[in-house]
Design a protein that fits this description.
Elements lengths: L12 E3 L2 E5 L5 H10 L1 H4 L20 H12 L4 E7 L2 E12 L5 E8 L8 H17 L3 E6 L4 H10 L2 E12 L2 E11 L16
InterPro entries: Acyl_CoA_acyltransferase (IPR016181), GNAT_dom (IPR000182), N-acetyltransferase (IPR051531)
Keywords: Acyltransferase, Transferase
Organism: Leucobacter aridicollis
Length: 203
């Protein structure tokens, strides 16, 4: 499997007990189970369709979605990872909307099993992904957009030293309504060493 720049994507990237690797179609069952088991935990932060259409996550097969993500990866438009802890899949992280031309940027989104939250797993996974996007894919900028009510997720850009760029009003349809999001970003020039080195203690 190949990265967005045509370079080979490592089978996995890891720091301590945390890893990220390219999603596989056979990950569908594990991810579906996590989505079902985490309905209450994830629903307030999940994207929804403005028209009310679309299945409840975890109630349908993810294989078609994974197939689309892998197609986007082959086209250089995204890098879909799973997050692992001690080798077990505990969440998902995607670098999407990869732009070239004059921009060379991507947007990161993620979710994690509620039972594994608060252990520094997600910040470690994000740091691994950003380091990969800068060092291997060759991007210049990575951003993440987070609802201002999501206190747990807001700690991630804070820990990693992302810049606050402002509030995007009614930006994404989440949990049944258009929600504001705070935008955070980092460029390659701002990272001295690696993003992972910004964490005091990777999980």
């Amino acid at each position: 499997m190949f990265g967005a720049d045509g370079g080979e994507l490592p089978s996995s990237l890891s720091a301590g007990r945390v890893g990220i690797r390219l999603i596989r179609r056979r990950d569908a069952r594990a991810l579906e189970a996590l989505l079902r088991d985490n309905r209450e935990w994830l629903t307030p932060w999940e994207a929804t369709h403005p028209g009310g259409a679309g299945p409840v996550p975890g109630t349908v097969s993810l294989k078609p979605s994974i197939k689309r993500m892998l197609e986007q990866h082959r086209e250089g438009r995204g890098v879909p990872f799973v997050i692992t802890y001690d080798g077990m899949v505990v969440g998902q992280l995607s670098a999407s909307d990869i732009s070239r031309g004059a921009l060379w940027s991507a947007s990161i989104g993620y979710w994690i099993d509620g039972g594994h939250a608060g252990r520094n797993i997600t910040p470690t996974a994000v740091a691994l992904a950003v380091d990969y996007l800068f060092a291997t894919v060759g991007l210049h900028r990575v951003e993440m957009c987070i609802r201002p009510e999501n206190a747990a997720s807001l700690r991630i850009p804070e820990k990693l030293g992302f810049r606050y760029e402002g509030r995007r009003l009614r930006y994404i349809h989440i949990d049944g309504a258009w929600r504001d999001h705070d935008s955070f970003a980092v460029t390659r020039e701002e990272v001295r060493g690696s993003m992972l080195s910004r964490l005091d203690e990777p999980a």
